[in-house]
Design goal:
binds cytidine-5'-triphosphate; single chain; Rossmann fold; alpha/beta; five-stranded parallel β-sheet
């Protein structure tokens, strides 16, 4: 793969030397494009030696080969690490006053950036807006990580480690094998109101559903993401030009939005944690202890099973995927999963073990992938699990030969 690594003027540039080395070791052709400022941190000979290619910052070198756009045009992947607040602002505005700027404007390859700056700069509304602009254009943002910064201060702003940048960058290079598909993904936990201020909810963070939406969009799908409750920083990872977002609060709202969206979908993935029950009567006013005698009894009624209904009404060629969070483990987990898949009629059920300590609010996941014919498994980051789910969907649809 032809990879352009752009380096901007931050102390974290020294870590990018490792990133370039790892890319070279993995057999990639790497061209480093530093800004003039970046060379004050790590010098040109280092970049040339480590990348085994000539390095320049100027648009006026190698003019006969139209180098100012050639690198961007040839690139299969562009990584900007570290990406300073200044470069992020220039990217958002499309400024092309050096080789890095022209390369970024000339490329249609995936662009992955690893921001590095002080926490105040990262949180400044200008940077927040610029990052949102870049995300909306499909730029993938890795980090920044939280930890000690150069001035002795601490907080979000450290550039992510080279291994993390490399993993995310290689994920961004997935083939567009979902390009012809419209997929609907539900994510997050529904909330059933008891009264105007209280609700019954669950611990789902929405991370796995957001990872499914982001992975599908990166692989070319058109995605409708129907989000129940998800924190905004988690949801931010689903900002992509091919993802359209709808919000749903209760199970009934999720059902209505999903049923509508499913009409035109090739694949529906029910990753949302849907409340099985709602209160029979929502109180119009805030429930008060004054009107109880030390106990409160709530009458709950069952919500419709959205997944089962989608499976019953599926159109020919439509693939329905469910999730199941189970506290069982081992053989019992597998058996419960098998029964649930059959009961709900899903083509694929993604089963994970959850408990007080497992499965929620974490970055990693481990799942079983159950179809009528096969049992597969996947483990790793929620993004890696998401990729495995889409591989399994493609395999079920006969659009990929990789076995489950
Ligand atoms: N689900 C749904 N509608 C509901 C409840 C769940 O569509 N009212 C979906 C979830 O989005 C998930 C799958 O069904 O994809 C499994 O959810 P789970 O809560 O494990 O299933 P339940 O039917 O609640 O099974 P049980 O409570 O018996 O474990």
């Amino acid at each position: 793969m032809f990879v352009v690594v752009a380096v901007t003027g931050g102390i974290a540039a020294y870590k990018t030397v490792h990133l370039v080395r790892d890319l070279i070791r993995a057999g990639h052709e790497v061209h480093v494009v530093p800004t003039a400022d970046a060379l004050r941190f790590v010098g040109l000979p280092t970049w040339e030696a480590i990348s085994r290619n000539p390095v320049t910052t100027s648009v006026h070198d190698d003019v006969s080969r139209v180098r100012h756009v050639a690198l961007g045009q040839q690139a299969d992947l562009v990584i900007v690490a570290p990406a300073t607040a200044n470069t992020i602002a220039k990217m958002a505005a499309g400024i092309a006053d050096d080789l890095l700027g022209t390369t970024l404007l000339a490329t249609t390859a995936p662009v992955v950036i690893a921001p590095a700056m002080h926490t105040e700069m990262w949180r400044h509304p200008a940077t927040v807006a610029n990052i949102a602009t870049l995300r909306a254009r499909g730029v993938v943002i890795v980090g920044p990580a939280d930890g000690p910064l150069t001035g002795g201060d601490s907080g979000p702003g450290r550039m992510s480690e080279p291994t993390d940048i490399l993993r995310v960058a290689l994920e961004a290079r997935r083939p567009a094998d979902l390009a012809d598909l419209h997929v609907v993904v539900t994510a997050g936990g529904t909330r059933e109101p008891l009264d105007p201020v209280r609700y019954l909810g669950n611990r789902s963070s929405g991370r796995q559903g957001v990872a499914l939406a982001a992975a599908a969009a990166a692989r070319g799908a058109r995605v409708t993401l129907i989000a129940a409750h998800i924190e905004s920083d988690v949801l931010a990872a689903a900002t992509h030009p091919r993802i359209s977002l709808q919000r749903a609060g209760t199970a009934a709202e999720l059902q209505s939005a999903t049923t509508d969206a499913a009409q035109a979908a090739d694949v529906v993935v029910m990753a949302a944690a849907v409340s099985d029950y709602r209160v029979a009567e929502v109180s119009e006013s805030k429930l008060s202890k004054e009107s109880t005698d030390g106990t409160l009894t709530l009458t709950l009624v069952e919500n419709a099973d959205i997944l089962a209904a989608l499976a019953t009404e599926r159109r020919p060629g439509q693939t329905i995927v469910g999730f199941a969070a189970e506290t069982a483990s081992g053989d019992e987990l597998l058996e419960r999963g098998r029964r649930k898949r059959a009961r709900k009629g899903a083509d694929l059920l993604v089963v994970n073990h959850v408990g007080w300590e497992h499965g929620f609010e974490t970055a990693d996941n481990a799942v079983l992938l159950l179809t009528e014919a096969a049992v597969g498994d996947a483990a790793g980051s929620k993004r890696e699990v998401a990729e495995a789910v889409w591989d399994a969907v493609l395999s079920l649809r006969g659009e990929d030969s990789s076995p489950l």
